[in-house]
Amino acid sequence: MSQFARSPVTAVLGPTNTGKTYLAIERMCGHASGMIGFPLRLLARENYDRVVAMKGVENVALVTGEERIVPPKARWFLCTAESMPLERETAFVALDEAQLGADPERGHVFTDRLLRARGREETMILGSDALKPMIRALVKDAEIITRPRFSTLSYAGARKLSRLPRRSAIVAFSAEEVYAVAEAIRRMRGGAAVVMGALSPRTRNAQVQMFQSGEVDYLIATDAIGMGLNLDVAHVAFASLRKFDGRRQRRLTVAEMAQIAGRAGRHHKDGSFGALVEEGPNAFTPEEVLAIEGHHIPPLERLYWRRGEPDFASLDALIASLEEKPQHPVLTAAPQAIDLIVLKRLAEEDWVRARTRSPMMVRRLWAACGVPDFRKLGPDPHSRFVGRIFSHLSEGAGHIPHQWFADELQRLDQMNGDVETIAGRIAAARSWAYIAHRADWLLDPEHWAARTRAVEEKLSDVLHDRLRQRFVDQRTTVLLRRIGAGAADLPIDVAPDGMVSVDGHDIGRLTGFRFDVSPDTRVADKRLLIAAAEKGLARELAKRGGELAVAADAELALLADPGGVPGVTWSGLTVATLGPGPTLDRPVIALDRSLAVLSRDTQGQVRDRLTTWVATSSARQVPTLTTLAALSRDPAANGTLRAIAAALAEVGGIAPRDGFDTMAHALDPDDRRRLRRAGITIGTLDLFDPRLFRPAAARWRAALLAARDGQPIEPLAPVGASILPAGQGAWGFRRLGAQAVRVDLLERIARAIHDSRKGAAPFTPDVALATSIGLKPDTIAPLMTLLGFRPAAPVDAVPQWRWGGPPRRAPVRVAPPPVARPGNAFGALAGLAFDR
Questions:
Q1: Contacts 24+ apart (CB under 8 A), 506-509
Q2: How many structural domains does the chain have?
Q3: pTM
Q4: Among the three residues 488, 512, 536, which one is the final residue of a domain in this structure?
Q5: H or E segment and range at residue 481
Q6: Based on the domain organization, do 131 and 184 belong to the same domain?
Q7: Model confidence pLDDT, tens digit, residues 346-389
């Protein structure tokens, strides 16, 4: 017992959020000096910062295994329970979370502090109500004060991750589970902060600051969150109710559940807790819910104990004292901790026994065994590590070699790697930080402590960045907060290049009326971003729809790419496709699917505008088709003329003369003049309008034919082409042997040949025009035969031809067509004599 055992001892007990720690800090600062032992390094650091703000940095010390800040004039000490300098006399001493004396792994430390740590003027023990019988049994003169919780803690039932409220903390019990939950929250809710006991204070503080500042609305943590960390948490959700305690997988005790759930709510703000499932091993039972809500925690029946001041007379005496059985009935021997396991393994080594023949060296060996297994390597690797440390401490000047320390630190001073890799380096750096803060283990401990701290801080900053990159999607977080607002309130910005952003976060690009999510977006986030765009871009899309509905002719263009679907573009963007209409020159306008975001009225206005543009453009580019269509409906024209006009309009204004002869002979001079005024030439072989061979007219005609047939646009002949190989025949070209000739040029050749003959007498045709445009000699014979000429006896080996009269054509009755459709008999006329 300490010499101050008779100083007043107060046990302040109660559930979480009762202000116990705050009370202890206030009491300590009211004394001339003081010391508080906390369960976590993180908690010690958090309260160190609070006391520094009140007392000044020169008066406050922080003492943990890996961090030691002890100014010369320090009077107030914030420590981890293991690192409390009990040899130092202070007016006030407090132990936080003293119920951890029931923890199999660390309980003996808290029990020892509960029994031995005393202040000169005041001692305070903080803990759960469950500790009350232990206080009465072990500290009989202690005054027990029970404090009620400031706010209500209630069970909120089971909720899926996707339905958790904002400001929720999700608790898991392994790093793998924490990372898995954080990944899921990132996909569903935009991101989360991660808090684990293994994080360095710098990383943990940076992660907590993201949560506290509202940058993220969710916190994923291990059960370390239950140890007094002050967070603005409204709801605690348990991802699991089972944990591995170092020996076995077991269900949490009610006390552990209550400690963690109690983090919900802060000061007078109520909180709630729940699980992620309604049934199964990870669901709360009704009894557990009632106990947690009512703060009815089963009282502790025992605490773990190990002798706090072991015997260093010899190695065997040390081991025996550490394995000594407690005398008090409420105390039980602590299970072998890693330090004792390592000690016993090293004690089997002859060289270790040879170097521990004095109490000083036994004490030094035990100090080396106290190096925590931060890396969780297990007893064998950790024993080898500790053995190497002791070998240096027990030889020469008793210092760890500068070069070994420097090399190991340099190996860790690397910033590449993923979250797990960086976290592993930080764990290793903590071991060296612990060593660096042992003043008698290094020749220049202050230098190495600074070097180690610098490496740990660099790694901590990198780990924070890695965690942020992996588990936080700021873009999605912003959208989730804004998505519930009205469209007018969603801060959508559309850059001149179409890039769409929300609060400065790019979410995709608006191309015309189509919103494309950024290519770096995860599949799970796409639906959210599209929904945000549809909501926030309503005003911009309506504006664009209004502009399209009154678009100038110059802004619209025909889409007529060979092999593609005919359509209309607006400023280069496809806004509609053309489909079968009542006549070839009147296709139906089908708006592009991207325009479905517009209102029905706006879509109607756009459709009317595009229909008008197609009609006027067709009349301008292919006037023949418009005129023929009108002529086919003219009641003043006779039936034959209307039939010819309808058939020609149906096939696009170019057709072989076969099938039209009977009707053409029935036309009177006025009817023929009306066809000529429509642009139609009644040629020797074909009926056509030569204007249709102009590039723009040819594109329009091909697009209209494709729209009528519901087929891709057929390839056009190269601009200016007059003759093609027969296998490359196109609309308006007639095949002659190995070549295909454009029908308007073929008509000119036919006229030239007819002009060179004299009646029915044999003659040599003038083929200068034919050869000038590329007609081969082998093509002349099929052409002459087609024109109605017959071979005659050659003169001086020069072929002669005789007029045989027009070739007999099978009469075809052509009636006015019904509504044009693919497969219509008139559509077949186009294929009678030349390739499509």
A1: 506/475, 507/475, 507/479, 507/532, 507/533, 508/533
A2: 5
A3: 0.63
A4: 536
A5: helix 474-482
A6: no
A7: 999 999 999 999 999 999 999 999 999 988 888 999 999 999 99
